[in-house]
Amino acid sequence: MAADAAARSAPVGDPSDHPSLLAAEHLLTEAAMVRETADEVDLGALARQAEVLTQAHDQLSAALEDAGRG
What is the pTM of this model? Predict the structure, then answer.
């Protein structure tokens, strides 16, 4: 109980420092790099971009869920 009270009264950190947001930012940067390096339609690059964007979505969803529990 004391630990819960301490967690609630602790100063709120900068939301942009949340690990899930940092990971999602990295994945979105990677997706942009894949898009920029493709000179023409490259199904492999599109597949990789879709995979990275899905991972970013999962990270952001987890961060929102986590924030809702706070």
Answer: 0.51
